[in-house]
Structure formats: structure tokens, C-alpha cells
## 1
Amino acid sequence: MKRTGLIAAFLLIWSVSVRAQSDGIEIFDKLKFLIISVSDSIKPAVVHIEVVKKKNTQRYESLGSGLVIDEAGFILTNEHVVDDQTEIMVTLESSREYRAELIGADKLTDLALIKIDVPDDVSLKAARLGNSDSVQVGEWVIAVGNPYGFDRSVSFGIVSGKGRVLNMPTLTPLLNDFIQTDAAIAPGSSGGPLVNLRGEVIGINSRGLGRTQGFTIPINIAVEVKNMLLASGKIERGWLGVIMQPLNRSFADYLGDPKLEGVLISDVLTGSPAEKAGIKPGDVLLEFDGQKLSAEKEDDLNKFTLTISQAESGKSKKIILLRNGKRKTLNIVVGEQPKVKEDEFESDLGFTVKEITDNLFRNYLLETKDGVYVSYVEVGSLAGKGDLFEGDVITEVNNKKSPDFESFKKMIEGSTEDKFILFKVIRGKDNKLVLIDKSNAPAERERDKTVILSP
């Protein structure tokens, strides 16, 4: 009897184990087919992008990815994929190749919008966009792109985090609000989609750090940027003109209130909305438009930066701040953010200049905002022989002031018949004269061309 009961118990455990194993295999089979289905549905909307770029005298190719968001031929990708472009070629899943036009780009979010003209006999499939605000940490996602040039490769992972901040070694800080994923985002994947298991795009992949750290721009931000670029070709953002830093516990103790929370103002830009409103260095911002502020670390400043950028320019906002231990209420009229990405002009004389934006002026510690900044001088060129140096600021052309980028371009373009061109430059803190003698023209030589992958 005991033996019969033991056998029955064994058979019951065995059948449960077999059933559990079968159920487990069935679950994984369903997941497998779901991933395959989602991958198949998004791949036709993913494109391969090849960009010919020119930087100074060097020409090179950059490879990246993009996402069709409109059947009329509009494609989202990364700004760093198409930056410095002279030609953009897009290859569809069908292997058909089309030249693309750059509609606009936004360096702060690393987004760009391009467009291809598609023949009537070609039907594009646009991706289905989701809501990145509803993304949850831990949910499964799929990244699709062209890593290392391998078309429409698929990687699988989870959302590892939200609201991530990346401090990249660039002169222009990003407006950070990244989705972090462990789905692989390798060089060449930039601009491809991150998709949830409902087949909805929740982000545009920007860059990977290491094997399991990928960062994606939320699709809600991408749609907002796309709409602004389509409407006006430019991005309008709110701006106060303050330099901020975290208010940590040491600063709070120094100010006499260990529990104090806010954002510390370390500098106020000349002529900015903040200066006009009466904000001063050393002030602690406590509230902005009814929203309490708190920043213990650098990453915490990102939330306030995003709030300011989304504020409508021309609108008055109430600010509560702390100054010398006393609370003070001010009204500030939000300004429009100055130009972030400076224009460049490559002269036939062998040098390149950049527009002096507020950002460039501060980062390069220049003496003046007037003129143009020399970013490159070709070795052996007319400019090089005339002793023009990288880092010079050209303020005059042939004894006439060139107060800004556009006036400098007109002066150079109008001097093609001149044998000599005299520049007045600021080098460090000294004024120098640079004479370009066109009779010293060097022989033409072939330029190099390199191929790289967008990170």
C-alpha cells in the first residue's frame, strides 16, 4: 500500500514537472514569436543612412540609421549623424536608394529631420509611435538599427532607467532626459528606433556606452522637435540666461539653513532676461512659476533646465529666491534661447571661421563677441602663409569692421579681385595684423576621404 502511494506521488510530481516545463516552453515560444512579429513590423520603417561630410579639408563618410515617421518621406535621425553633411543618401528595406534633404536639426536634443522624395510607385511604411511618458523601468524593448553597417539588426533588452543625464565632452550640453536600455546600441545604430512589445516606437536611439548601456531620446521629445522643425525650420526654447549649480548640504549650512533646498545662481549673463529681472549671482532660486526647486547634484539641474526650455518665450513667470537670508519675489519675462550651433564659413584662402555665439564666447574665453572665430587654418595655404592662426578672432577686413558672421562673409566674398587682404585680429589679449598675399597661392592637391560609423 505504501509503495503504491509512493508511486502515485512520484507520478503526480513528475506530471506537474512535465506540465510546468511544457508551460514554460510555451511562454518562451509566445515571447519569441512576439519579438519576431514586432521586429518584422518595424523593420520596413528603418532606413540605412550614408552621409558624406566635410570638415575643413577632410571629406569622410558616416553611417547611421533613421526612422520613417511619415509616408510623405519624413525621417527622424540623430543630429550627430547628419552634422557637417554635404550629401545624405537613404536606403530603404527594398534596397532602393534616395538622396535626402536636411529639413532641420537640433543639437541640444541630438535630433534631425530629413526628407526623401519618393516616386509614386513606391509606398513607404511609417512607424507607429507610442507614448514615452508611459514607459516603465523593467519593460522589454527592441532596438533596431544598422550597427557597423549590418542592415536592420535587432537587439532585445529592457528599459534600465528613465530621465538619465549624459555629460558629453562637447561645447554644447545636451538637454538630457534619456531612456536607458541594455538593448545593444552600437556604432551605426544611431537614429534607429527603440520599440516596445506592442510595436510602438518609444524613442530614437542616440548612443551607446559600453556593451549594455544604451541611451535613447524619448519619442515625445522627438515628435515635439519634429513639429517645430516642420513649422519653422528652427527650434524655439525658453531661456533665462543664468549659470546654475547645485545647492548641496555644505552650501545650505554655509547659508545658515541645513534644510534649505533650491538652485544656486553662480552667474547671470549680460543683457539676459535674468539680469533684467534683477536676479544676481549668489541668489538661491526657490520656486519657478509655482514649482519648488531642488538640486543636490549636477544631474538634478536637468529637470529645471527642461522646465525653462519648455516655457514660452515672452511670458512672465514668478520667481521666489533667497538673497542674504531674505525671501524675494520677482517677475521674469522668459526669453528665447540664443543660437546654440554656430554657423561656419570655409574660405577659399585656406581657413574656416565660426560665428561667435554666446556659447562659443564663454567656452573659449574670448575677449570680444565682435568678429569671427578662426577654427581652422590649412597648412601651406594662403592664410597659413599670412600667419593667420587657429584661435584668432578677426575683427576687421581691409580696415573695415566686420562686427558679425554675415558681414564677414560678404566682405570676403566681395574681395575676390583683391591681391591683398588685410585682417585685424585679436590673438589672446594682443592685436595683430595678418596680410593675405594671393600671389603666394599653393598648388591644388587631392583631399583625403575616410569612412566612419556614427556612435
Note: The two ends are 71 Å apart (CA to CA).
## 2
Amino acid sequence: MTTDTPVSEIQRIIEELRSCSIKPEKIVGKHKVIIGLVGDTAILNPQQIQQLSPFIEKVMKVDKPFKRASLEFRHGEPTEVFVSTPNELVTFGQNHPLVSIAGPCSVENEEMIVETAWRVKAAGAQLLRGGAYKPRTSPYSFQGHGESALGLLAKAREATGLGIITEVMDSADLAKVAEVADIIQIGARNMQNFSLLKQVGAINKPILLKRGMAATIEDWLMAAEYIMAEGNPNVILCERGIRTFDRKYTRNTLDLAAIPVLRTLTHLPIVVDPSHATGKAEYVPMMAKAAIAAGADSLMIEVHPDPAKALSDGPQSLTPEQYKALMQEIAVIGQFFGRQSQKLPLSTGVANLNIHKATSIV
């Protein structure tokens, strides 16, 4: 619709389109209102729709199999996903500062999760990640403490004011997870658990959708479509590495090329998880910085106060000191690419690195 369209005219058009057995969805963007038409749209003639009102600026067909997740559906306007935490309103989106997510793979005990929360917050994190329910390859590995761990995450949230992101594995646990989580995570192993995707699509919570280990980009976006088709538009995509032929040196292969590809296909925000992608703490800082250069909107990094004693994924976890150092480097990298964190001011020492956009980098 044109920017000067009266609200009454938008409503009139919506009612007229409903009479054609089409479901109109009003999308209010920063600069204009878009009406997405969902259903058997093959019978619609774009020229006839254009004639419904002089306020209709353009009519486009979405050719991709993923409709709501398609960049065309929002006429190229990036989605903003807002997350209300006790401290602040955190915004995921292409035109916003970087969002920092950090915390351990698993919630182990109250002291550990609260200490980690305080330390990652001091380093600049806005959201705390921690697993209560853990999908593991081996049935004999630590599976998480379940519901009791959710209570510990709630205590960390209350103590520090950080938002909480944690994974749901089973629809039976969804209500309990939703009560604590500010963002609900769908893990890589559940990316194509379509019944679970429908369930989270029916609730009013942001969803972090991790890419499956062997999922194509289209598979991934179609999984997002399942969530959005149920009425939840607040989907955040997370690249966490894919399974390739060479696993000798890293846990997975971090597909950074997916970021610019996704920018051409979807309006959804993009998070990168270099911890699961590499599986080794020594590689995490470099891949985190590379993700920012590639255009990620957020980073999710595993942090544990004593990685050697972690009950899960210790080898890929940074210590709080390493995370703090990385966040200082990210402040510089983010500033260089115009995506600095809104939480972390540049320190004098880091600013003295003196990076300028005119510098040639070979």
C-alpha cells in the first residue's frame, strides 16, 4: 500500500479480499503497510487486485515455496523481532545493533548458572542461553536436569535481568518452557519436527530456529514457514554448522555463505552459533568475528566457568575471561561493519587498534 493509505481503506480492501476465500494478513512495516494474501492465490489476477484501490502501490506474486518467510512477502523490508527482558527491549534485525547471547550448554546447578549469567552480562551479553532439556546423540550422555533446570534459569533471570533462551524438545514440555523462556529454541535435531513447529507457531513467543545438521537452506526456510503459517511471525534463524565430509578437525562446517544467501531470500533475522559449528573453543573467536563480517545480526556463544568440568560441550565453551576478551574485539569489528553492540562501549585499549574503513585489508 502507498504510505498515505487511510486505515479505513486498508480495512475495506482486507474485507473485500476475504470474500474471495483468501486470508489477508496485514503487515505493518517501518515505512509502509503490506497486505499478504495466503491461500489459493493462483486464481487471483494481479491486475484485478491492483484495480481494487488507487492506494495499492504494487501487487507481487511470491514465487518461492516458502511464502511468509520470503523476502518478497514483505516487499524487501527486514523483520524486527522484539524480545522483552527484565532489563531492556532487545531487538533482532538487520538494521539494529548486534545482539549477544551467551551461556553454558547445560544448566548444571544454581551457583554455576547464576555466576555465568552475571559474568556474561558484565561482558555485554543481553540474553542467557542454557539447556534444561538436552538432545544428545548417546542415550547415556547427560540429558539435562529438565524442569528443575528451568527453575534455575528463572532464578538467573531474576538475579541478573538477562533474557532467557532455552530449548524445547517435546510439545508436552512447551508450556513449562514458555513460562520461563523469553525466546524458545528449536534445536537442529528438531528442525523438521513438524508437529512441534506447529505447536510453537501457535504461541506468542519469539522462536530461535536452528538449522538441521543436513538441512538445505530451503528445508530450513520451509521449517520457518511451518511456524509462521500458524500465526507466529517472530522467527529468528540460527546457523550452527552443517554435517559435511570432513569432520576430523571441526565438529561441523560453519556455512557462513548462508548469511548473504539468506539476505536474498528472507526477511528474518540471522544468528550464528560458532560454538556448535566448530566444536573447539580455540576456533570460536575467529569464526564469531567472521560471522559479523558476513552480516550476522547476533552471535550465540557457549560460556562455562570451568569448561574442563562441563557436563556437556566443554571443549567448545569459552571461559568468562575469554568471552570478555572476544566481546572487546567484537566491539571493534562491529563498529567497522556498522553493526556495533548497543551494550558494549569501546574501551580505550581496544579503540587504539585504530581500524578505519579506508584501510585496505588483504
Note: The mean pLDDT is 90.
## 3
Amino acid sequence: MNSKPRILFYFLHLLGVGHIYRAQRLIEGFARQGLAVDIIYGGEPVPGVTFNAESMHFLSPIRAADNAYSHYLDSHGNRLEKPFQQQRVAEIEAIFDTLNPDLILTEAYPFGRRMVRHEMDALLRAAGKRQPKPLIVASVRDILQERKKTGRVEETCQLIEDHYDKILVHSDPNIIPLQATFPATERIADKITYTGFVIPSSSDSPTMAPRDVIVSAGGGAFGGALMDTALKTAINRPDLTWYMSTGPNLSEQQFNLLNTRCPDHVKLVRYISNLANQMKLAKVSISQCGYNTAMDVLAAHKESPCRAVFVPYDTEGQSEQIRRAQLLEEAGYAVNLPQSKLTDEGLSQAIDQAMGLPNVDLAVDFDGVDNTARLLRSWLEHR
């Protein structure tokens, strides 16, 4: 190709920030492969997060109203209604008219993000009218949220058959195959390619002094109960030194209340940069089991004695984290203590159990970033 291939990457976050950091890592890989990226972003901006993109286009943002994703709110804080959805449709159509992508990459959709189906349908229809038509690729994590409503799986398969050329699954099938949480995988198997896990670069050094236990809660949107129980456990375990990273979304009031209770052997922080490398200096990691945090844990396990306790968020109808934690526990990587069963005594016992776990010597594919970029470039070159 004489000029850089152009990727139009659509993504958003609704509550937790894991999707944003995974997108950021993928875009860094695209740049290394000489792929130009235009972004359409549909959620609220995350302070301090930037992307290595040619252009970035913001839709009027939406967000989840609560941890249960019971409904969604528009940019004015009102329940998401049809007029606002139609406004976003007009916005995405206008943005697409200014772009000329060789490939469109949609994060999560059509496996999730059903609340944006109106604008995605508009984007896919517009792409279908282009000559030449851009390749359409879905980007999906390892574990899907359980679909309880009849017809959702069929709807997803139909969208894939009608519009999508390829599906990228950011997992290693030897550890977490897509069929573990998507029952119709065989129907779309000819379009699926596994990339390996998307993990952060390990080039940077840890920025903080070593401590025995690291407790992390991702962005913090779901982490209040974990932080409270972990601190109770830490107070009763002065034999260990602790870092507790709350994430930026824990309220200032909650952070301050926790901080006033911390003894000398416990350090409370908002954020630990390069978490995976910091984990390598610890004995135990305690965390929820969102995708990015789980990848940090796996990367640390690969190169250090650090062992993991997962406290997956399994309340309010959420199944993604508990399923991931179960599969990783079965593979020998961690102790699984679901949040619904979390107590300070149980967490203390889980720490001791984790420190006794042997090293798991499995060949895990952690090259998801570079593999994804190489795959996209290869598909474009061989159209």
C-alpha cells in the first residue's frame, strides 16, 4: 500500500474504564504497524486518557445509570430516550461522511452494547454503500456477559452474518475459549480469529517501593466493598505490607474515610502506574476480575512469584467477572472468592491459600496487541 491503511475504531465506556484502556493498548499496536486510526467515541471522556490517533470524534455521551446497568443516561443525566438516540445517529452519519476508512473496527458490538444498535445500524448501512466497501471487524474480549433475554444470541449471529467480515477475540482459546460464554460460537466460527490476550507493555519500571500485597479495583466504579473488606483484613494482618489502589472513580468521601483508617503498614493510593510490573514485586495480588486487571495478574504470574486472589463482581446480575475468575482458578492461576461471599476472614484465608499456589507453566499467548495489528494489516493487504 502506498499510503497508510486507515482504521475507523468505534468504542465507548458506560461505567467501568477497562474498555478504554484495552482500546488504548490496541491503538498503540496499530501505530507500530503503520495503521492510521480515526476514533468515534461514544461515552464520557476519561480524564488523563489520550489516544495515538489521526482524529478523534465525540458523540454526545451516554453512560450507565448504576452498577446493574438497569438503564442508561444521556449527556443531560436523563434516561436515554429515542430522540437522543436519533441525535447520535445523525452525529455518527455526519462523522462517517468525513472519513474514508479501509476497515471499521467495532469494540464489543454486536456481542454487547445493544443500547447503541440504532447508531451502529446506521454506521453499518453507510459502510455497505461505500465503494470499495470497508472491511467490517468486531473486537470482543474473552468473556461475554450472560444473555438472559430470548433471541439475543440469534440477533447477534444475524448481525455478524449480514455485516461482519471478521471477529477478533482477545483471548487465548487454550485458557478461555469464546464458546465458554457464547453458545453459538460454532455458527460463526469461520469468521473468528483469536489474538491472544491484550496486556500492557512491560517496558516501564515499577514506580513504587515493593509491598507484600497489592489490592486493586480497576477504575473503582465497583470497588467500594472490596476496598472496605480488604482494609479490615489488612488491619488484622500486620505481618504483611499493603498497597490499596482504589481507582479514580471511588468517591472522594469514600477515599478519605478509608485513608483515615489505614495503619502504618497499609498505603492507600488512587492509582498504581504499570500495575503488572508492580505486582511482580508483591507476594499476592487481590483484585476484581475485569479483563484488564486479570491480564495484569497473568502477566505478573508469568514472570514472578506473585499469586492472585480474585474477588469477581458477581452481584446485580453481572456474570462476566465470575466466569473469568472460575476459568482462571480452574487453570491454576488464582484463588476465586466472589464478592457475594467476601468477608475479611475469608479474604485472609484466601491470601494464605494463594501464597501456596504453584507456578502454572502454560504457554499463554500474551501478544494480543501486536497480533491484532498484524492481522488487520494482513487482511487489508490481501483483500
Note: The chain has a mean pLDDT of 92.
## 4
Amino acid sequence: MKASNGKIHRALPGPSIIPDKVLQAMQRPAPNIYGGELENITHSILEEIALLAGTKGRVVLYISNGHGAWEAAISNLFRKGDKVLIISTGVFGSNWGKMADKMGLNTIYLEYGMEDILDFDDLAKIISNDKNHEIKGILTVQSDTASSILTDINKVRHVLDEHNHPALFLVDSIACFGCDEMHMDKWGIDVLLTASQKGLMAPPGLSYLIINDKAEEEAKKITEKSAYWDWGPRLEPSKFYEIYCGTAPTHLLFAQKAALDIIREEGKDNIINRHLILAKTVWKAIEIWQQEGPLNFNVKHEKNRSKAVTTVVAKKFDLKPLKDWVETNTGVELGISLGFDGEDYFNGNSAFRIAHMGHLNPHMILGVISSIEMGLIATNVPFKLGGVENAMTYLAEAINS
């Protein structure tokens, strides 16, 4: 008997669940795109994004997904042939590097696959050996959506500072902006990238480059840029519509403004703490499940896990029946695996992801965990029973503390 006949819960790491208030904000006619209300909304969004980033820098808004933000950052800051260092702890750092390759940059990689975190001794060795400062940029991802590895961004900056290296420091925070802590100025980030569809709780289609003074000055030295990605006219428009290089994405802006209103009402510190509590609720369930059977955290140590998404792996065990059963019978969609290819992972079927980002509360996350535990029972996956109970005990204590 199929018991699922209500609202689908997509526990996917983006697009995340969109609040009703945000959906409702889009149900209105398009405004005048040349100023007035839309201009006020635009500047409000840019100010709120900078506050969330923890910066006095400026924000550039693009009509694009995160991959567009990658290209915009490269286009504004580097010339063909420039050497950049790519730190990859999953899928997305590597893919950003591949884009840099296509754009003619000289890329070198610190590649750690899907399971290992950045080795800071490796980074220090490369930076210390770059005596002539040939490396013009360091590109890394804060939380890799595929592996769920969280990179210590502040520690990367410390390595650069210890060796007095002038490379621009670019951080992709698309997966976890508004979920994991971010202190852009304090951590010495020159360019921070994010997008609308994850912790910012809006539909896909808006991406942001948050830039400091150093990045602005370096960009002025680059004479050959893509006309669309060039952030110069967007930062200093002679007419309002030049902020968007044309027609503004009106209804996405309505949505983002409504989402940022929700974020401001809850408060940045509360949001970060809520994500930590909900992430740990998921982890408490997995800690029990993994004691028997094939299930394991992809990221072994808690300090290295994103608070936005958790990747679960079961090497050499097919989890497709579990994922299918949970979706069909409980109405919960789990995130597909990315990057877990090959025989050890049944070509992707031995991993799944649980998103705990954005518009989420205790009963929603407990519903996801309970659905998974039911699925483990129903599909005969070996595991230790009691994950839900452990998660509930932790959550009750965390809320009361």
C-alpha cells in the first residue's frame, strides 16, 4: 500500500525548499525595469548579501546559476596564461578548475578526491615554493555539495599570510552561504561567490560575486573581459538597468527580497545555530545506523562536515532500492550522488545526500530521518536500529539548552 499522498519533501542540496512567503512574492505583475521600486529592491538585496557575508565590500548580481559566477570571477580577474591554484575536495572545485582551463588559465591542482580534506602542509609547500609569485589566484569551495566536505577557509588564509603571498583568494560559498559560518573580511577573502537557490531560499537564477577593494583594483588591470560578465558597469552603472546588463530578472528579485526579509527577521546568528542543530540531528541518526551494516559518513570527522548537506556512502552496496522506496512510499526525495562513480559505488548508487539547508525546522528533518529508517527496514539494508530515537533525544536537549 502506498501511504504517500501529500506534499513532497525534497531533501536535495539545491534548489532548496522555498518558503511560501517567497513563492507568494512572485505572484504579481512585472514592475518598471528602469528604476523606482525595482531599484530600491535591488540595492536592498545587495546590502543584505554583504551583511550576511560579513564584509564592507561590494556585491555584483548576475542573472545566472553558480557556474556563471565561476566564469564571471575568472573573466574579471585573470588573463589567459595566468597561473591559478585549484583546491578540490569533491566535484565542484575540480569543475571550477575545468572552467578555468577552458578559459585559457594555467591551472594547477591540489586534488583530494571525494573523501579527503585539504592537507594544509601540501598547500604550504606549494605557496612557499612560489618564490616569484607566479600563482595569481587561489580558488576553492567552502562546502562541496557532492562530498559534503567543509574546508577551513580561515586556515587557508593563514597559510597565504604566513608566506606573505599576494594571490587573490576566491571562495565558492554557493552550497553553504547562510548555513555555515562566513566572515569574509575577517577571513581575508577577496572574492566570495554565492547563489540564490540554497541557503538563500529563492529559486535558481541569481548569482552573486562579493568583492573587496583589492579585487576591484586588480580587475581594473584586466583589459580583455567578456562584455556580459564585466563587473565594472554593474558596479558603476550610468543607468540603473546596467546593473543587470539589460532587463532585470524582476520576479526572481521579488523572491530574493522576500527570502532575505525572512533571514533578517530570524537573524544571522540564529540561522547559523539552527543549521548546526539540524545538521547534528541528522548526524546523530547516522552515528547509530552505521554501527552495523554498510552505511557510513563520507566525511568521518564532524569538524570537516558542512552544516548544509550530509553525504552518506555504502561502498559496494546498492542503495538504489532504498532511495526508490523512500521516495515512492514516504514522499521524501534524497539527493542523488555526484562524483561517486566506479564499481565501489555501484556507479553512483552507493551514496546519497541529505540536505539540511535553508527553510527547515525540526519536524521536517525528523520526517526525513524517520523515512530513511523506515526505508532501511523495508529494503533489508543492514543497519543498527535506533537512529531516529538518538536524533530526537539530541534535538530535544539542544532545543532546551
Note: The chain has 13 helices and twelve strands.
